[in-house]
Design brief:
Bound molecules: inosinic acid, magnesium ion
Helix content: 25-40%
Low-confidence stretches: none
CATH topology: Adenylosuccinate Synthetase, Chain A, domain 3
Oligomer: single chain
Mean pLDDT: 96
CATH superfamily: Adenylosuccinate Synthetase, subunit A, domain 3
Shape: globular
Largest sheet: 10 strands, mixed
Strand content: 15-25%
Strand order of the largest sheet: 9-7-5-2-10-1-11-14-18-19
Structural class: alpha/beta
CATH architecture: Alpha-Beta Complex
Number of domains: 1
Number of helices: 14
Distance between the termini: 20 Å
Number of strands: 19
Length: 414
């Protein structure tokens, strides 16, 4: 029995969905514990791309799936995904927690309105209503899944007064009741039963650690904790239930939305990496900002998550670039520091201190596939050096290297 959290070590889009899909055959269930439909997890199987926003990525392996109480659930998105899922698998074994917060049309409206009011200081949210849903939860006026099932339009009474909102709710409520009545349950209790039988759980983090509402680059963050330690709270399981954390990181850095990004590359190399890596948001389609791997921030997030293992993704994307840089420290006002600053103003003016690594080979898909088939020892020497370089700087073991979107383009350390 092993309970594992998969967590992003950067600003999201590290390839968590692919890693979850790859390792989930070893587990009995996959659990989402925070975030909502702002997430976009892309999994590629047999040349077909699947994008999920709410349903855990384990769907493709037909596992038991859970959306925990820490998630904010948009019933309209859930309905669409359930319909899509039912076309892909005969059996959808999904439980959505009764205590989970429900994202309403008011939340979506408020997300957009707030961004407009913020003007030039807009966060660049996904406009999926995530912030307003968590905020209403804290105000104790957001409906839970249980409220939607038990109550009528009065669930909007206070928030529509507060925000002077008069949107249509009857049709929405009908759909929400319908979709929740098929899937609602007590996730924590069910997970406990699986653990008591000796089963293993895989927790699928959404967004990335640098988007954590407290430990990320606030205020340019999402609205909830994204760190692995939130898995217990967000899934309804007791402290101490987690055995290991696998951090997922890309071989470079990306960010959607605004906020400081010390290693951002805005020249032609940035464009090359963006195009090669397909760096466009899975949820919003926005081009992602691109930059060099930043080991100062990764050291910080590896520590906060207690990620002893790392899955390194998209290594193929850097193949063939004449120069590959990695930030190993920051310079602040002429002083070199190795830790991630808590102050966002400082962070926005740090200068990365780079080390250049030996260029990585440019191989085609077939060559990478052959390497993956024959195992870790056949990884090109330059890739092994890249891996060792990172391990030396972040004090975690890289246990998986991913060199393409497809399942087969993955190699595990043996
Ligand atoms: P929100 O979560 O929609 O409120 O957006 C807040 C910030 O988090 C914005 O910068 C978004 O671009 C970013 N964000 C939210 N979800 C994801 C994700 O799944 N991947 C990457 N960035 C995300
Ligand atoms: Mg994503």
């Amino acid at each position: 029995m092993t309970n594992t959290v998969i967590v992003g070590l950067q600003w999201g889009d590290e390839g968590k969905g692919k890693i979850v899909d790859y390792i989930c055959p070893n587990y009995d269930a996959v659990v989402r514990y925070q975030g909502g439909s702002n997430a976009g997890h892309t999994v590629n199987v047999g040349g077909i791309k699947y994008i999920f926003h709410l349903i855990p990525s384990g769907l493709l392996r037909m596992k038991k799936l859970f959306i925990g109480p820490g998630v904010v659930v948009d019933p309209i998105v859930l309905k669409e995904e359930v319909e899509k899922a039912k076309m892909m698998t005969q059996k959808l074994d999904l439980t959505v927690d009764l205590r989970a917060t429900v994202v309403t049309p008011l939340h979506r409206w408020l997300d957009g309105y707030l961004e407009e009011i913020r003007g030039s200081s807009a966060v660049g949210t996904t406009r999926r209503g995530i912030g307003p849903a968590y905020a209403e939860r804290a105000l104790r006026i957001a409906p839970t899944v249980s409220d939607v099932l038990m109550k009528g339009r009065e669930i909007f009474d206070i928030s529509s007064k507060l925000f002077k909102w008069e949107g249509e709710v009857d049709e929405w409520l009908k759909t929400a009741k319908e979709v929740f009545s098929s899937f609602a349950g007590d996730v924590g209790l069910k997970l406990q039963e699986i653990m008591d039988r000796g089963g293993s759980l895989l927790f699928e983090g959404a967004q990335g650690s640098l988007l954590d509402v407290i430990y990320g680059t606030y205020p340019y963050v999402t609205a909830v904790h994204t760190l692995a330690s939130y898995a217990c709270i967000g899934a309804g399981i007791p402290l101490g239930s987690i055995d290991e954390v696998i951090g997922v990181m890309k071989a470079y850095q990306t960010r959607v939305g605004k906020g400081p990004f010390p290693t951002e590359v805005e020249d032609e190399i940035g464009n090359v990496i963006r195009e090669r890596g397909g760096e466009y948001g899975a949820t919003t389609g926005r081009p992602r900002r691109v930059g060099w791997l930043d080991l100062v921030s990764v050291r910080y997030t590896t520590r906060l998550n207690n990620a002893r293992k790392i899955a390194l993704t998209k290594v193929d994307v850097l193949g063939g670039l004449r120069s590959v840089k990695i930030a190993v420290a920051y310079k602040i006002d002429g002083r070199e520091v190795e830790h991630f600053p808590a102050d966002i103003e400082l962070l926005s003016r740090v200068e990365p201190v780079y080390e250049e690594i030996e260029p990585l080979p440019k191989l085609d898909k077939g060559e990478w596939a052959r390497i993956c088939k024959s195992g870790w020892s056949s990884l090109p020497r330059e890739v092994k050096r890249f891996v060792e370089f990172i391990e030396g700087k972040v004090k975690a073991e890289i246990c998986i290297v991913s060199v393409g979107e497809e399942r087969g383009l993955t190699v595990e350390r043996s």
